[in-house]
Amino acid sequence: MTTRKPLLDFGFGTRIGQIRLDHLRYSSENNGKKRRGETVASSAKNKRNQSPERCAAEGILIGGGGETEGIVEVRTMIPERIKVVVLTACMMCLCNADRVVMSVAVVPLAEKLVWSSSFLGVVQSSFLWGYIFSSVIGGALVDRYGGKRVLAWGVALWSLATLLTPWAAAHSTLALLCVRAFFGLAEGVAMPSMTTLLSRWFPTDKRASAVGISMAGFHMGNVVGLLLTPVMLSSIGISGPFILFASLGLLWVSTWSTGVTNNPQDSPFITRSELRLIQAGKPVHPPTNAAKPNPSLRLLLSKMPTWAIILANVTNNWGYFVLLSWMPVYFQTVFNVNLKQAAWFSALPWATMAVSGYFAGSASDFLIRTGHSVTSVRKIMQSIGFMGPGLSLLCLNYAKSPSCAAVFMTIALSLSSFSQAGFLLNMQDIAPQYAGFLHGISNCAGTMAAIVSTIGTGYFVQWLGSFQAFLTVTAFLYFATTVFWNLFATGERVF
């Protein structure tokens, strides 16, 4: 038997991927015969009554054939928790790519259908009309049934809505608004499912890195959507990008449904060492199908740490959706660049945000491992995540070229990703058993803010003829929320 040292504690461990039962039967039938190695005989005897799945989980590969009787080999495979986070990152990438397709496609649609800037904001915000209703309900469902089933249904339904979007746009504006609202309704389960699943699959001091990887996929969805959509619009037409991303979503569902469990202890392929690593340093949660009532809304809202999370979510969504929905339009109207150029300028900030988000998560985990309190780490990360974008948006008002504007937007979005290690993880800190429900409540308020900011930007631009006023309002909202967060946020358990 050969053993190999794990490469990284987070990334790799020793595992086995294949069991050959023919040799086990051969060894059992010829138990009285002479064997060449006592070690091989002992291994075969010990594994004779175990199932193939458990042998795989324990990391043993029995090989043999011909004259060679039994060679035990250990192979390096990817741990189950890494598979979970990679699949989650792919889901988040599709989640955002499906949103961004409309942000780009709406430009030729507006020209074709002669939409005003104010009505363009209404179309852009229609996704949020459904999103706001599914946030609370989706969070409660995730707490009760786990993220696997809820997320699978969510991705399947929003992929269907994505597929129907070109038909709806060709049929009528009302049909388009209804389909986009249904799309948002399905996507509302993505964030609470992601945070709840990762909290169960990763120990506390590695959770921020896991969320960073998943959110990196989320931000890369912007890049993929912004770069592919203009190319496919010009070569295939309106339906091209919608059909592509809808098909990828349905493919993801088939993989997810057979390869993931809600809790690590339910996985038939996880090793004992990996399960011990996951459970170390974090409380053991009850089974996901346990009937546990959510705390009353009145109780949740009676605590200031809850309001700190709600206000942080409001501010984050306000700024995020302004940039997500209006960035291509901003570059096209302010600097008179074409749609493909606007997509490239818009994609760069999201690509750097994916990298900085993982860095923020790693830095957060490092600070916790080196003895800093969870409360202080959450406050540091959230302060960077709001003060940085606020200052950058003020500077954006003075940008004189698209390159300069792209730099300021890149800085703003890169630093805003530090919020992932702030309020987004803080829900698990203060209410680990009810994080999905709390996420739904805060996300509901954040979605309302996103609707106001998305529509409000359109009215401000139509009224004043520029983006400057709304960027200034957004910057000062970042500053005010930073003060509130540092006064009332905590990393200790409250509920």
From TrEMBL:
SUPFAM superfamilies reported in the protein's UniProt record: MFS general substrate transporter
Top-level taxon of origin: Eukaryota
Region annotation (Disordered) ranges: 28-51
Keyword Calcium assigned: no
Gene3D superfamilies with a match to the protein in the record: MFS general substrate transporter like domains
Keyword Methyltransferase: no
Family: Belongs to the major facilitator superfamily. Sodium/anion cotransporter (TC 2.A.1.14) family.
TM helices/strands, residue ranges: 84-107, 113-138, 150-168, 174-198, 234-253, 307-327, 347-368, 405-425, 437-461, 467-488
Native organism taxonomy: Eukaryota, Viridiplantae, Streptophyta, Embryophyta, Tracheophyta
UniProt-recorded name of the protein: Major facilitator superfamily (MFS) profile domain-containing protein
InterPro entries (UniProt xref): MFS (IPR011701), MFS_dom (IPR020846), MFS_Na/Anion_cotransporter (IPR050382), MFS_trans_sf (IPR036259), SLC17A9-like (IPR044777)
Keywords, sorted A to Z: Chloroplast, Membrane, Plastid, Transit peptide, Transmembrane, Transmembrane helix
One protein family per Pfam: MFS_1
CC terms in the record's Gene Ontology section: chloroplast membrane
Membrane topology, as annotated: Multi-pass membrane protein
